[in-house]
Design goal:
The complex is a heterodimer of chains A (312) and B (416). Chain A has 312 residues and is mainly α. Chain A is built from 14 helices and no strands. The longest helix of chain A is centred in the N-terminal third of the chain and has 41 residues. The radius of gyration of chain A is 24 Å and the shape is globular. In chain B, helix 8 links the parallel strand 7 and strand 8. Classes of the chains: A mainly alpha (312), B alpha/beta (416). The structure holds adenosine-5'-triphosphate and magnesium ion.
Chain lengths: 312, 416
């Protein structure tokens, strides 16, 4: 039976090629190169630093962080997990991956939080942004790997750019959501006392949206980690590369080592950022608490005169 | 007295074409008709009033009558559709963003129904907020915030989070936040309606006490008539976006403008609204040394009363009644000393009638003396009962055999 494509086919592939190869690449090469500079700088700095820190020192630091923000349990888990990562011999790659993830998340936050704030403030902007975010979240990353390679070449930085595109939507969405769900009466109260819009943002909206923004950051972090292997396809290194080469050589052992490293790193980072987000809810006496309690001058447990005080 | 707030012809329409809606209203359509025909809601409609410095102006009305819309228009949290707002003669509606901010920072503060305290800030930081956005240096604003907290009796709670305080305490923090900026005008949108009745009464008393000291100009919104009568120097009754009556408590209860206001006020305890001065008659008394029993009787007959006050050297000495006269002398013109009862009911002109009710029930006239103990008037039982006659809530008379009556009432209920 006849179907439209028998008579006519839209040459979409040709169009896209023309736009990208014929127009975007030659005209904007410098711009795309310039975009890479800050990312490369941050990444190289972080990678250098993380590789330079001795494994026991890094482990100790992260264990303390886990204890301070979460619980003793997580501190213990962090200790064991990092030890395993070292023992299976993927420590340097883990640090590279960590540097990549942190770089990607940093730039996601730098771009995403302001975009989320802007979306929360202007309905029109949010309407325009929403379909873009939907596309970013549904399009398979493999689709944009090709144009990224064309525009940015191969290597670590293009890998991070792909990661940023993939991981950006949650932090924008949740920043927007967090700011929009600040109760209207609090905003009204802030304005009634003469705040400027900027003061309302910093004094009321951002602090109250912080938990939601942290949840967005956590999601962004997890998405960035899940891109580790895909980013390796276009030249990013780290644990993703171990898995990718393992795949190529059908080396199931190497792939497992890389995979385990990613999973353990993901679990540690997930728990720590979650604990940051749900700040001081239910946790066993943490390190910070213990230290604080130690140095605090004992405050009176109950202020005098509970109910119905009269005015003097 | 200067007029602090002047509002002229102020209206608010929620919708896309306010002018059209206002035009329809002017042609006599009702709020509901405008809503049905244009889909626009009339929030407030041609409201006029002025508030004097140091006055508590209460706006009272049922839910949806436009009270919040009105008070929010005053500090422009809602933009008015039409009309004029002036604070100290300064035009509010035409003010640009910077002037508006300055006014909000320095002149007008607001207290909210649901407190609207910032949950992420401590009590002190909440109270400091207005000063912080005004960029007052940290040390000074802390001092002023603590001072405001002291005024409402919560200084000890400065470092707590609002969520750890009870409702009444949270509202006192809200009040302190308003007071900390030392505003000339306080806008209060149903500040006490989220509180339970006992605490509400406390807060009302506290506000009155603070007001006596601070003399702020207050616009107070409530849907509770009792609260309005307790707090308001003047009261506006609002219905469907309009003021149906503006006046003092006594004017509103004693002389309701229409059936709507009358329906509101019929259940009011008039004995708590009207004061002694409103039923007081000119003082009638005789000088003890210059009179005798016969003269007193003649005077009583002349006035048609049963009791008369006596003076000694111009000062109130006591009371003689027909009964005490009869008991003392059995007639004749003997000395009055024996017939005089030195203990007599007294009141001040500002006391509400409830306070003299018992004396009136006993049939005695109440001597009204001012602050310098000058005898300025008499309240007769007849005058009090006449004023309270329309009031269903008047307390039962002391000497009524209510025990029996109650038993009689209860009996059918028991047998049923
Ligand atoms: N943002 C808005 N958009 C449309 N209509 C509104 C808006 N705010 C208020 N209204 C309407 O304006 C009228 C007055 O509302 P307002 O909130 O001022 O009443 P209120 O007297 O404060 O009532 P309550 O005692 O319940 O607080 C109501 O009919 C309401 O539906
Ligand atoms: Mg209201």
């Amino acid at each position: 039976m006849w179907q439209p494509s028998d008579s006519f086919e839209i040459p979409l592939d040709v169009w896209v090629e023309t736009v990208i190869k014929g127009w975007l690449v030659p005209n904007f090469r410098d711009l795309f190169q310039a975009v890479q500079v800050p990312i490369t700088t941050v990444l190289e700095g972080l990678d250098l630093a993380l590789q330079a820190i001795p494994m026991p020192l890094f482990t100790l630091a992260l264990v303390l962080v886990a204890w301070a923000v979460a619980s003793r349990g997580l501190a213990l888990f962090t200790l064991v997990a990092l030890a395993v990562v070292d023992l299976i011999g993927v420590w340097p790659q883990t640090m590279t991956t960590l540097a990549m993830i942190l770089t990607a998340v940093l730039f996601c936050a730098i771009v995403g939080v302001p975009l989320g704030i802007a979306a929360a403030r202007r309905d029109g902007f949010e309407k325009g942004l929403r379909p873009v975010l939907d596309i970013m979240q549904t399009i398979p990353p493999f689709v944009y790997l090709v144009p990224i390679v064309m525009l940015f070449g191969v290597g670590m930085t293009p890998g991070i750019i792909a990661t940023i595109i993939f991981a950006l939507p949650p932090i924008i969405r949740l920043t927007n959501l967090g700011i929009r769900s600040v109760p209207e009466d609090l905003i009204e109260a802030a304005y009634a006392f003469g705040s400027s819009p900027r003061q309302v943002l910093w004094e009321v909206q951002l602090p109250l949206a912080l938990r939601t923004i942290m949840a967005g950051l956590n999601q962004t972090l997890m998405l960035a980690l899940s891109m580790a292997v895909i980013a390796a396809l276009i030249g990013a290194g780290g644990l993703g590369l171990i898995v990718y080469t393992g795949l190529g050589r059908l080396d199931v052992g190497a792939a497992t080592e890389g995979g385990l490293g990613i999973v353990l790193l993901a679990m540690i980072l997930d728990r720590i950022t979650q604990a940051l987000g749900s700040e001081s809810t239910t946790k066993s006496p943490g390190l910070l608490e213990t230290l604080k309690a130690f140095f605090r001058i004992r405050a009176p447990a109950n202020p005098p005169g509970s109910g119905g005080q009269s005015v003097s | 007295m200067t007029e602090k707030i002047v509002v002229k012809n102020l209206s608010k329409v929620f919708g896309d074409d306010p002018d059209q809606a206002l035009e329809m209203i002017r042609k006599g359509k009702t709020k509901d008709e405008v809503l049905a025909e244009t889909g626009q809601t009339i929030g407030v409609q041609s409201v006029n009033f002025s508030v004097e410095e140091g006055e508590v102006f209460v706006v009272m009305g049922l839910s949806g009558s436009g009270k919040s819309t009105l008070v929010r228009m005053l500090n422009r949290l809602i933009e008015a559709s039409e009309g004029e707002i002036r604070f100290d003669g300064q035009d509010m509606r035409g003010a640009d963003a910077a002037t508006l901010r300055k006014l909000r920072l320095e002149k007008i503060a607001m207290v909210f129904q649901h407190f609207a305290l910032f949950p992420h800030k401590s009590v002190l930081e909440n109270v400091e907020y207005g000063l912080k956005v005004a960029r007052v240096p940290a040390a000074e604003r802390r001092e002023r915030a603590l001072e405001a907290l002291r005024k409402v009796g919560l200084a000890a709670w400065a470092d707590r989070r609002p969520a750890t305080l009870s409702g009444g305490m949270q509202q006192r923090v809200g009040l302190a936040r308003g007071l900390a900026v030392d505003p000339e005008i306080l806008l209060m949108d149903e500040p006490f309606s989220a509180l339970d009745p006992l605490i509400r009464r406390d807060m009302q008393n506290e506000l009155l006490e603070l007001q006596r000291e601070l003399r702020k100009t207050i616009v107070f919104i409530t849907h509770d008539l009792d609260e309005a009568l307790t707090l308001g120097d003047r009261i506006a009754i609002m219905k469907e976006g309009r003021f149906v009556q503006v006046g003092t408590a006594e004017e509103i209860v004693g002389n309701p403008a229409d059936d709507y206001v009358a329906a509101f006020t019929q259940d009011v305890d008039r004995a708590r609204v009207f004061d002694v001065a409103s039923v007081m008659e000119p003082p009638e008394a005789l000088e003890l040394a210059e009179t005798d029993a016969g003269a007193v009787r003649a005077r009583l007959d002349e006035l048609g009363r049963d009791a008369l006050h006596l003076l000694r050297d111009g000062a109130l000495a006591g009371l003689v009644t027909r009964r005490s006269l009869a008991q003392a002398a059995g007639g004749g013109g003997g000395p009055l000393e024996g017939a005089m009862v030195p203990e007599m009911p007294r009141a001040r002109p500002g006391d509400v009638l409830r306070q003299v009710y018992d004396a009136c029930s006993a049939g005695l006239p109440v001597a009204v003396c001012d602050e310098e103990e000058r005898f300025v008037g008499v309240v007769t039982p007849e005058a009090v009962f006449e004023l309270l006659a329309e009031d269903k809530n008047a307390p039962e008379e002391e000497d009524a055999p209510d025990g029996e009556e109650k038993a009689a009432e209860a009996a059918p209920a028991l047998s049923a």
